[in-house]
Specification:
By secondary structure, this protein is mostly beta strands. Helix content is 12%, strand content 42%. Strand 4 and strand 5 form a beta hairpin.
Length: 120
């Protein structure tokens, strides 16, 4: 079995997705229940305008959902402005970073892959 950190760049690029269609962030309970792992937690992150999470990687898959504000999300193949309802799916080991834009941002982070039904 291949470890995620041993994946080739092509394999990671196939698994990486930013969904432009929006999930409903007005009623958080169903979204939180989908994001929660069988055991554990979901992180709620608030970043002030200009806060940067410079290049980094995680040893687990990661799913982010932007709730308020916007971030400039970047990875080695490009960048994208992500606003409320945007879902970002990252495979383990993928280098990435983000910067909160004007007004800052609030988002959820689940440290596992989540298949949200809105993005089948």
């Amino acid at each position: 079995m291949m470890h995620a950190l041993d994946m080739t760049r092509d394999q990671m690029d196939r698994d990486f997705r930013i969904f432009s269609t929006e999930v409903d962030t007005t009623n958080l309970r169903p979204l939180l229940m989908r994001l929660l792992p069988d055991q554990g937690a979901v992180e709620v992150q608030r970043d002030v305008a200009g806060k940067e999470h410079a290049w980094h990687r995680h040893n687990t898959d990661e799913t982010l959902v932007i709730l308020e504000g916007s971030v400039r999300f970047y990875w080695d193949q490009g960048e994208k402005i992500c606003g409320p309802g945007t879902v970002i799916s990252l495979p383990a080991g993928m280098m990435h970073g983000s910067v909160a834009l004007d007004g800052g941002a609030v988002y959820l982070i689940a440290f596992h892959s989540v298949n949200l039904p809105q993005h089948g």
